[in-house]
Amino acid sequence: MPSAPVSVIIPTLNAAPNIGPTLGAIADGVIEGVVGELIIADGGSTDEIHDIADAIGAESVTAPKGRGSQLAAGAKAARGAWVLFLHADTRLSHDWIDAVKRHVQTHPRKAAYFRHRFLADGFAPAFISGWANLRSTLFALPYGDQGLLVPLSLYREVGGYPEIPLMEDVALIRKIGRRRLRRLGADALTSADRYQRDGWFRRGARNLAIFLVWRLGASPVWLAKRYARGGAHPNAALAEQIDES
Known about the structure:
By secondary structure, this protein is of the alpha/beta class. The protein has helices at residues 20-31, 49-56, 67-77, 96-106, 123-139, 152-157, 168-176, 193-198, 200-215, 220-229, 238-244; strands spanning 6-12, 35-42, 59-62, 82-85, 90-92, 111-118, 148-151, 181-190. An 8-stranded mixed beta sheet has the order 3-2-1-4-7-6-8-5, with helices on both faces.
């Protein structure tokens, strides 16, 4: 078992060009004795992500495309007392280490998430981040791009990530429940690329619609097909993969 408490798990799919700042923040956690291992959970990349993992001493695991299956595979390989799930295009603010230290020491049985911020300025990113933080507070529903810190024992107790192609983050959070979830006093700064490409409010409305349809009982597989064909899903080949299964 690593001497430092946290295993960081990052799902990747051709993420090598943009993962540098994310890894930089994690490296600070290694230096400070918070991060004991980094696991790259890859979904079949054709870039140099495995070479990057080898160069920095990270462990690589492979899984079928889709964040649910990739995150589940990463958690299965984790050896730390805590797991921190983090998207490849999300970097943590400079104060994240102290926030995680305090949480690990004072809330050993609770999961936690970071405040949401975009790596962009202006009214639209501030508004949508504000809604994400309000949603997280009122409904205890942070999304995966806010990062998720969970005791490994609690993760296993609730059954972990379901291996579904969409809404895996919300499904896990709902199993953890409001009473075992709190917000950390640091930020997760996530890429605004997809919002800038698709339109800030169009993208936000699409995400909200997908969530509502899912809550009404739609299959994550059906939703993932619709999402990928609409050009918004981070796994560009997901629709073809689902059609073949």
